[in-house]
């Protein structure tokens, strides 16, 4: 392997250097003139300033971590933390970790976890300074060092949602840092000097290193492969991978890698990374955390879209959008909010995919799509420059944030713009697809037609029209995934209902029509009636059972 | 129907390269040389069915992406030229996604992009004209060192023609594949086309005829109804 442990250690060493070099900047001002007594008083005041409710929360969180009460931890994390954040820290950061230390016996591991929450809160509600970004990175290094470089597995266990959020946030902050450093005109000279000095902080290699190390440590690839083959995953899990913490972190890192690969424009590698993750399996591990589930399908759909596999993209988006709309009520508000935001983006991408390669989708999804993006879809299908503008608009609203893996040349005026570059490259392909709807709308009306006639309709040279017909033929074949664990594989299938052949200057056209779909309609309504009957019967039973009891109670049941 | 083979391991890929691609070794900059050598072997092989390994070339582009100081424009040019004659049209764009505006400004690479545009738009006559433009001084360098480039391309273009036409003037085919009458007649013989004076008849790939796609009901859709029927 690529000297993973060695790298991580070396890397932690570097961090100390980094920490020292910029630690001087702020602490001198704060601490320089104070003596010990004043410091102590300041610390006490700091602890005192923490509201009672928050102090009690931190106490519980600490105690639950110590005694490994997963259910309580999940409650603390998923319900209480966001509530307290809203109530006390809507516009400020959580209490300084140094003050919290006094409440939790200065417990190192707890403070690392606390700091992760503390920085995450700053990222989501405030504007993190460059120093905060450095510090947060340093804290992630501490956390992953603890998990990856201890002699044996750590005893720590955390709820799945929390683990997912850690991996997801780690990547988000990496992306945010890359964007931050590339906005040269907004950076001060001091900041640029600091960035130049600390080029290894949030470096792409270090982030990938963490994700790959988590995957390797947990043997998650081997575990998933064993599971697929019906073997016992526990046998190949190893000392670390047998623990839920390592297993889930490894798994989430795979999903995280997919995101990183997409941010770098490497769509094949993104899909290759998922080779052991069974898409479409209702019991797959990614279904345990809604955000993870949504993330998998968003990036898979996006990667397919960029590869020009519009039918596969459509399928991925429709699958997850159906899931989100059906399970909305079973999830926490916070998770639903996050998922809804991603869902909106996916509807936009779906609108693009479906306009470029029309296909029948689920009725509910179709109805929403028409209501929200009907106008845009219509404009795309009309073709021309306007269509490209509409596609760009939808794309920029919905695409992931792209990054350049290396620091920009801080002394140059120009920086790379990966966002615009990826869009332009995508449009090279999408633009050709626009030939299809235009030609199709004319060809549909005839069974035979001369080239000269069609070229006068389209106001196009006959020679160019013949070229366009060849483009149409090519664009109507698409690679489509046909199942299996390899998402890259697929078969070449026709993606249109309208075919033709050219004999000299004459076009012979044939259309295949989709028959009306009665069965689907009857099945759905039969099921609906059945559900209704069952509900009515249950009520009747309940009323009958309560017949002997006082009236008031029976009414409540009814 | 043929399977998209860009992602399947080609028979010509050595074990050493395969291991590298399926491992974190793919990020190790010292492997750049290995992948560059492998690309050179792909370029030297004129057999268009076995001489392209997209995954290996994408891995090489990724190493350049991470280590821009190692980036070699001539290698990128050859990777793109190989993707241009790949039987899978999407290959070219997948390579492009890993590049930057900066790289695309290079004269040879910009020219390849323009050639690709003519190909995508099926403007084959324009393609050959631009490719062998006597005014262009850099003409040779764009596909320099790619064995079998012209013939690889002709194969692609012929595939487009046979997919679209059933009857086509001989003269048009000549222009589209940039060959003289004699050579096209030879091609016709090899492929079993009928030549009737100035017109070539191509064999039917699939008959074009109208049909009705009827709905198919899967058993899974009926499970709920059947289990309810069972209760009665």
From TrEMBL, chain A:
Coiled-coil region list: none
Domain PCI: 312-499
GO CC annotation: eukaryotic 43S preinitiation complex; eukaryotic 48S preinitiation complex; eukaryotic translation initiation factor 3 complex
Annotated GO MF terms: translation initiation factor activity
Record family assignment: Belongs to the eIF-3 subunit L family.
Free-text function comment from the UniProt entry: Component of the eukaryotic translation initiation factor 3 (eIF-3) complex, which is involved in protein synthesis of a specialized repertoire of mRNAs and, together with other initiation factors, stimulates binding of mRNA and methionyl-tRNAi to the 40S ribosome. The eIF-3 complex specifically targets and initiates translation of a subset of mRNAs involved in cell proliferation.
Assembly notes: Component of the eukaryotic translation initiation factor 3 (eIF-3) complex.
Protein name: Eukaryotic translation initiation factor 3 subunit L
Organism: Coemansia spiralis
Lineage of source species: Eukaryota, Fungi, Fungi incertae sedis, Zoopagomycota, Kickxellomycotina
Automatic annotation (TrEMBL), chain B:
Subcellular location: Cytoplasm
Function: Component of the eukaryotic translation initiation factor 3 (eIF-3) complex, which is involved in protein synthesis of a specialized repertoire of mRNAs and, together with other initiation factors, stimulates binding of mRNA and methionyl-tRNAi to the 40S ribosome. The eIF-3 complex specifically targets and initiates translation of a subset of mRNAs involved in cell proliferation.
Protein name stated in the entry: Eukaryotic translation initiation factor 3 subunit K
Record's signal peptide: none
PANTHER family named in the record: EUKARYOTIC TRANSLATION INITIATION FACTOR 3 SUBUNIT 11 (PTHR13022), EUKARYOTIC TRANSLATION INITIATION FACTOR 3 SUBUNIT K (PTHR13022:SF0)
Organism in which the protein naturally occurs: Coemansia spiralis
The family this protein is said to belong to: Belongs to the eIF-3 subunit K family.
PROSITE patterns named among the record's database cross-references: PCI (PS50250)
